[in-house]
């Protein structure tokens, strides 16, 4: 591994967006850069810094040059509740626009911090949700790199659809072929909500700002790897006309149990108890169910999912992040946890997902198809049962089911937007969920082929991050490109 000398040391600034799916991979990236001799400064608000403090502290104790500088999140100025520093703390989606306004208000603080920082920064890597980072970097005469929390496949889908004039006037439930892709992918207009079809003028304006910032950025950083989606990486480079560095799967930098167990937040279950439970189950038998940090299903759909897990007769871990009053009442009145005790383990809150997925007793993963979770399932060699809810999760489902062919679709058709869950109702019955579970565990030729593909991609993902692997080389190239940026200009 090439490591910079003290005289050559570069200083990278990382600005993660305040949502778990955006923040966690950037924390991993900070460690990957620091391992190669880069000095890294991460800008976080106090609440978000506290979530990742154990992992950062261990990295610092190991000698990595990583520091965290706190930004004061302007809750009051943006008319947000006090302490609402992460997207998963929003009481309702109605406040999403205010949250974005608050992140825009961070710019003066960032400019002040970076103007005084020593040594001076050489590069800003900012989440796509901070389009103003391009102008900040321009003032400092340093490159700005956009971090995308999506795969290249979904980014290409989004790009092609935003530049396609046939969506307007199309019925929301009509399946059409996404234009300009190497694979035949069919979606509906409804499934594009908040991805290529903004739900409001404000959101559309924000998406345009993101696009403009990307056009003016030095390049794009993606948590993926070349062997997973080679055609789509090339297509993204072609359509954007930018450097694209794929440096993932970045979660694989979490090699020890504490880092896996404390990645992102303190687990809501005793990690050792969780591991003991997993140890008691046969190899490749456990179904892991986790629908992300922001996802919320309507109560009737949660009940259907719970009954499907109970009826499956398979051991399972079910992570329940958000419990409505109605669903909490159902759990209690039906004594659900008592009924599945021993075979089912319920985690209320945050789970040590990377640690659980890497356990040999895991056999399959029911996922909302957020990209981090999808990629973590891939690195664990698991077939997926796909239950997308919003944003690019429907295109990630298409990638898992139709492109890499490791996923089984349950049948979600309409997005379940944050704050509008109860207006949707039941989309997939317990029988449909059970059918997908049985299909993913099927011992026949189709199931065996799916597991072989999952295992093959797992092996490729691990090789990508090893010394000399594609992602390892891309991180080195990223550092080299930034070091040579002035000459290029």
TrEMBL record:
UniProt-listed InterPro entries: UDP_glucos_trans (IPR002213), UDP_glycos_trans_CS (IPR035595)
Record keywords, A-Z: Glycosyltransferase, Transferase
Enzyme kind, highest EC tier: transferase
Origin: domain of life: Eukaryota
Short name of one Pfam family: UDPGT
Enzyme Commission identifier(s): 2.4.1.-
GO molecular function: UDP-glucosyltransferase activity
PANTHER family per the UniProt record, alphabetical: GLYCOSYLTRANSFERASE, UDP-GLYCOSYLTRANSFERASE 73C3-RELATED
Similarity field: Belongs to the UDP-glycosyltransferase family.
Protein name: Glycosyltransferase
Species annotation: Cuscuta europaea
The organism's taxonomic lineage, starting at the top: Eukaryota, Viridiplantae, Streptophyta, Embryophyta, Tracheophyta
């Amino acid at each position: 591994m090439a490591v910079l000398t003290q005289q050559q040391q570069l200083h990278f600034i990382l600005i993660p967006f305040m949502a778990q799916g955006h923040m966690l991979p950037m924390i991993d990236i900070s460690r990957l850069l620091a391992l190669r001799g880069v000095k890294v400064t991460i800008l976080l608000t106090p609440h978000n810094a506290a979530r990742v403090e154990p992992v950062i502290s261990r990295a610092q104790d190991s000698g990595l040059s990583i520091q965290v500088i706190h930004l004061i999140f302007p809750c009051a100025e943006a008319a947000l509740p006090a302490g609402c520093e992460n997207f998963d703390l929003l009481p309702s989606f109605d406040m999403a626009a205010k949250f974005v306004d608050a992140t825009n208000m961070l710019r003066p603080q960032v400019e002040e911090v970076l103007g005084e920082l020593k040594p001076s920064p050489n590069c800003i890597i900012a989440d796509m949700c901070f389009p103003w980072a391009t102008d900040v970097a321009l003032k400092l005469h340093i490159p700005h790199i956009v971090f995308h929390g999506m795969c290249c496949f979904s980014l290409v889908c989004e790009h092609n659809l935003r530049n396609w004039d046939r969506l307007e006037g199309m019925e929301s439930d009509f399946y059409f072929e996404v234009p300009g892709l190497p694979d035949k992918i069919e979606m509906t207009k409804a499934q594009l909500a908040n991805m290529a079809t903004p739900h409001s003028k404000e959101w559309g304006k924000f998406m345009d700002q993101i696009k403009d910032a990307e056009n003016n950025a030095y390049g794009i950083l993606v948590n993926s790897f070349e062997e997973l989606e080679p055609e789509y990486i090339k297509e993204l480079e072609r359509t954007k006309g930018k450097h694209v560095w794929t440096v993932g799967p970045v979660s694989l930098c979490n090699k020890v149990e504490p880092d896996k167990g404390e990645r992102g937040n303190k687990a809501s279950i005793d990690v050792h108890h969780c591991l003991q439970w997993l140890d008691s189950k046969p190899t490749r038998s456990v179904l892991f169910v986790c629908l992300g940090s922001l996802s919320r299903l309507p109560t009737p759909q949660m009940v259907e999912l719970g009954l499907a897990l109970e009826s499956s007769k398979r051991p399972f871990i079910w992570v329940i992040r958000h419990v409505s009053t109605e669903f909490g009442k159902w759990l209690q009145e039906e004594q659900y946890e008592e009924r599945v005790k021993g075979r089912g383990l319920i985690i209320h809150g945050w789970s040590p997902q990377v640690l659980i997925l890497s356990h040999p007793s895991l056999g399959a993963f029911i996922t909302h198809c957020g990209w981090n979770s999808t990629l973590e399932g891939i690195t664990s060699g698991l077939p997926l049962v796909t239950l997308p809810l919003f944003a690019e999760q429907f295109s990630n489902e298409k990638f898992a089911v139709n492109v890499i062919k490791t996923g089984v679709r349950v049948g979600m058709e309409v997005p379940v937007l944050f704050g509008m869950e109860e207006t949707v109702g039941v989309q997939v019955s317990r029988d449909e969920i059970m059918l997908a579970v049985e299909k993913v565990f099927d011992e026949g030729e189709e199931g065996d082929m799916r597991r072989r593909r999952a295992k093959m991609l797992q092996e490729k993902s691990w090789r990508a991050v090893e010394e000399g692997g594609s992602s390892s080389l891309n991180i080195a190239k990223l550092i080299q490109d930034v070091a040579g940026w002035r000459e290029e200009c």
